[in-house]
Write a structure and sequence with these properties.
Shape of chain B: globular
Number of strands of chain B: 24
Number of helices of chain A: 11
Structural class of chain A: alpha/beta
Number of helices of chain B: 16
Order of helices and strands of chain A: EHEHHHEEEEEHEHHEHEHEEEEEEEHH
Radius of gyration of chain B: 24 Å
Distance between the termini of chain A: 23 Å
Largest sheet of chain B: 9 strands, mixed
CATH architecture of the largest domain in chain A: 3-Layer(bba) Sandwich
Largest sheet of chain A: 7 strands, mixed
CATH superfamily of the largest domain in chain B: FAD/NAD(P)-binding domain
Radius of gyration of chain A: 22 Å
CATH superfamily of the largest domain in chain A: FAD/NAD(P)-binding domain
Oligomer: heterodimer
Number of domains of chain B: 3
Amino acid sequence: MKRWDLIVIGMGLAGLTAARTAMEMGAKVLVVGRGIGSLSLFGNTIDVLGELNPETKMESGIRGWIAAHPDHPYARTGAEGIVEALDSFRTLFPSPYAFAAIDGRNSLVPTGAGTLRPTYLLPVTMAAGAAMRREETLIVGLRGFKDFQGDTVSLHLRCRGVTVSLPRYGLEGATALALARLMDEAPFREGLGEMIRQQMAGEKFIGIPAVLGLKDPAGVLKTLEAITGARVFEIPMLPPSIPGTRIFHRFREALIAGGAAFHMGHPATGAAVENGRCTEIYAENPPLTSTYRADRFILANGRFLGGGLWAEMNRIREPLFNLPVSQPGSRGEWFREKFFQPESHPIHRSGILTDADLRPVDEEGRVILRNVWAAGSILAHHQAIEEHSREGIDIATGFLAARRALSA
Amino acid sequence: MDLKTEVLIIGGGATGAGIARDLSLRGIPCLLVEKGDFTSGASGRNQGLLHSGARYAVHDPEAARECITENRILRRIAPHCIEPSGGLFVSLPEDGPEYRSTFIRACEAAGIETVPLSPREALSLEPRLNPSLIGAVQVPDGAIDPFMLVVENARDAESRGARFLLHTEVVSLIRSGRKIAGVRVRDRITGDEYAVSAPWVINATGAWANRILELAGLKIGIALSKGSMLITNTRLSERVINRCRPPSNGDIIVPNDTVSILGTTSLRSEDLEHYEVTPEEVSFLVEELSRMIPEVKEERFTRAYAGVRPLVQSAEACDDRAISRGFTLLDHGSCDGLEGLLTITGGKLVTYRLMAERTANLLCEKMGIEVPCLTHLQRLPGAGMGKALGDRLLRLRRQTPAARGEILCDCELVPREAVDAILREGKVRELQDILHRTRLAKGTCQGGFCVYRLLGVLNELHKGGEDGGSNRTLKDFLEERWKGIRPVLWGTSLKEEELIESIYKGLFNLASDDSGASCGGAK
């Protein structure tokens, strides 16, 4: 049976980052996962620490923040680790579809609810959103596309909004994915650009749902900007996320080109452990159960949604290795009384405790499995949703876990 | 804009709407005021059970007889609000066979038809039942849609001249000496206050009865009992499943369209407006009801909710018309010397029509007129209409995709057209009114996706309200939704919760009002 240097469990941004990092270090890597993972749901921009004041430079700001949050996953990677991992991420996206931070700080970008959201790295298709001036902006909804409500966005952003018909009939109820694929066709995006142009009243910015193609988003952007004469930006919206799907495709392409293997659709459901080491894992591939062997394993299968954690009625478990999970005392303490609270619900801070190298540990700090590392949102003591740190945690810990795993 | 009517009814639950229909069928003008939407109180927060009466047969034969009589009438007049699923009373080994024999005899005495079933027969009808059951008894229980029932009563009454004012709250009673002369009301949305003069006022506010009575310095002995229920993601049984033992907590599973409702608990409550389902109640219901259907333990729950039952403590024996043990009808003229005010409270959803009939009878007697009740003879206006899931899917299939338009709610297949039709009626005043009248937000995601879309439709039609920049309506909805889902968050429903929080708090950056996070508004 084939033996891998490293098996990465999970195909979200943490798992993909770990796999690519290890591959570039020369390791033979297998990635197993249930599916595209959270990138297809929420992946849009790269949040690192949205709660950091937009006046502050990320690099210096995050250093002080880490000092005040010694249990946070960022305390394991350090500010330098975050910067190095983000730089590595950016090398995967060369121009024209590049990711960049504006002036090294957080920027505010419009969302599908008409709110502004702080984020760090923006793809080129969203950059103009951070620069828009509302009196010069037109928000464009697409008729029949229900997951982006243009009137909600323009109402709350207080700019002008229009809903345009799509340049092809029979697309009522089209999904984001269908629209993105149509955008990849030149006549379709040219037709849409023309329809937008006819609705314009001198606006300099155009906000449009984030469906500007899967293959060549920068090309779609260029076409629309050429026709309208305005700066165009994508607005993140309800899942599924097209920008996140692009990130996934780019990673997969790079991994496969570099010799890594990809087993998608078959979640890891069991693991064999001998003498404090994991020897193999099992993935359901009905009616078969596949066995995969490796020297090292990285657990990066997310939280409840990803399947990395599972909540029974009264206890939270880590189902694959049965690792201890740091968690509140009882179900009554999992959630606060109100949905909106300044602090996250206590359950969201639950997760896997690790040593400085991201190896899972028990309550006394003892390493449980010598060849298993954990990365991404499964880790304890972050509030990725409220902090706006999801992608930053994924990239920084995925990067560090791979480095540590391969140097062990 | 002061109004005038003959009979003013307070309360838009089943009783109030039933009285409005009863009076309008007798030709008596009436006007109903309700502080929320229809069924905002106990009528909208029960288990949706069309009692056969079997549940009461052993300890309260009179209530059992009332139930079975009304059960038969409702099947006739409101078939579109009812699923005649039938019900089983299931005996488990710990319940023993003795109670079962007592139960069957009591049902027969009350006129409730029973079919005793062997364990094998019961399991062939309901394969998910606990296989260790020792027997079951089939009874004519069913499921009922309380909102539809109330709206249908109101629609019928309105077509005969009755008037309805929703989101309208009584702020004071107007008296003329020892007689009632009307009420002052406040429109809860516009804040306008005005008078409605009426020589007769009926207090049909159920658990809220004392809120009205205290405006007249009166009080009756009502205890509040909170009952909590859980909604499953799938339907667990074809029939209503009852435990064949003396009535107790956690002993009924009622099918409801595509889901089941598990209930109930009963805990004394002091507060009428704030009551929540506790983790202990949820654990109790899951544990207890998994005795009848073991799969309850594996089931995904979409929501928990609670209602308060008004339990009238004293029969207020000053009036011998306080007939039934199930409900209480008071004439404050003879009890308290305040002529023109009646209170009707207590009772069950299934006896709402009887309560309305008795109330209207007493009123007619006091008015000195003699007109017979017709509510048990006349069918409700939509009685020919199919309501089951099959009918809904058939209606959808007959339409072309273009005619169907956008499907706003993917869980429950609610097309945009359904919302447009409600908006055309022009009576909707807030988001929850639309949610009550459609199946939007009733499915697996509990509105996580469709309410965003619905608000988009309202904003497009400029009916989104005045919350430009604040997303207040969306945030209020998510806060309201939280009350129902928080108690059932574990397993699969917790996955959904992580998704919804990641969208609204993460991607959309909606934040708590006091967190200081940058949210909403534009530069």
